[in-house]
Amino acid sequence: MKSVAIIGTGLIGASFGLALRQAGFDGPILGVSSQRAIADAVAAGAIDRGAPLEEAVPQCDLIFLSQTIGRILDTIRHLNDLVHPGALVTDAGSTKCEIVDAAGQMIQRCQFLGGHPMAGKEKRGAAGADGALFRGRTWVLTPDRASELETPAASAFRGWLERIGARLAILEADEHDRVVSLTSHLPQLVSTALAAVVDDRLGEPSRLQVAGPGLEDMTRLALGSYEIWRDIVATNTQHIDKALAVCIQKLEHMRENLRTRQLQEEFERGARLARHLRARREKDASL
């Protein structure tokens, strides 16, 4: 892997460029994005310069699509005539089935390997880029066949993911989308719903002075951008619908058992998962 094109130089794309540089990558890194995003990414040291898609893609070995899902799908439609046969196209989309299917139909001249780095911040844009963003975080790859991970281009890419500190996980695209509907998409929608309920029912905004840190913690994800989440929900509707249905059923169960020991069982079950998540985070931080 001697050259990289980052299509979409926002937080994830710029952080990937910074991570590569910090891991010792010394080849050219080109960015394809808006003028402002390119300027921010150059200033952050994440890319060397900006270029149009038609210029950047033909000369690069790795094409990293780090846009919103809708824009990734649109970019995929324009890549086949631009890539060279030894290149690898990959992406950072939060859902995988539609992206992998589109790439399988439209990219024939080189390899496509679906990906999803499980990292991010509430802040957007290259100004918030962090070369350590992926360190200790899971980076999911979604090949159609295991052999796709062993090609020269994929092997080189996997090597750089390990160098930037990411932890690789391999899933089928549909299984990825099912899992993240529970681990990522449901938390976002629950946080958004909680914030909306409190906003609707609280009355005077001054009543927020009677809120402890729990409300702030629980509504952190509600700061997420609808522009990003609109595409996520639209491309994973079936799995998200099932996750919401199960969550609603659980809330109804808790509502019906506010005075019974079954509520205690739900507290214990929830605390068990919460402890597991925190123990895993502490273990990752110690490595």
General description of the model:
This protein is an alpha/beta fold and 287 residues long. The protein folds into two domains: 168 residues, Rossmann fold (3-Layer(aba) Sandwich); 82 residues, 6-phosphogluconate dehydrogenase C-terminal like domain (6-phosphogluconate dehydrogenase C-terminal fold, Orthogonal Bundle), CATH 1.10.3660.10. The chain is built from eleven helices and eight strands. An eight-stranded mixed β-sheet has the order 3-2-1-4-5-6-7-8, sandwiched between helices. Helix 4 runs parallel beside helix 5 and helix 7 packs across helix 10. The radius of gyration is 21 Å and the shape is globular. The model has no long low-confidence stretch (mean pLDDT 95).
Short structural description:
This protein has 11 helices and 8 strands.
List keywords for this structure.
2 domains; 8-stranded mixed β-sheet; 287 residues; Rossmann fold; 6-phosphogluconate dehydrogenase C-terminal fold; 8 strands; alpha/beta; single chain; 11 helices; globular
Layout of secondary structure:
Elements: E1 4-7, H1 11-22, E2 29-32, H2 35-44, E3 49-50, H3 53-56, E4 62-65, H4 69-76, E5 88-91, H5 97-106, E6 111-117, E7 138-142, H6 152-163, E8 167-170, H7 173-201, H8 213-218, H9 226-234, H10 237-256, H11 261-286
Distance between the termini: 27 Å
The general outline is: globular
Rg from C-alpha positions?
A: 21 Å
Order of helices and strands: EHEHEHEHEHEEHEHHHHH
- What is the SS-derived class? alpha/beta
* CATH architectural grouping of the largest domain: 3-Layer(aba) Sandwich
In terms of per-residue confidence, which ranges show pLDDT below 50 for 5 or more consecutive residues? none
CATH homologous superfamily annotation of the largest domain: NAD(P)-binding Rossmann-like Domain
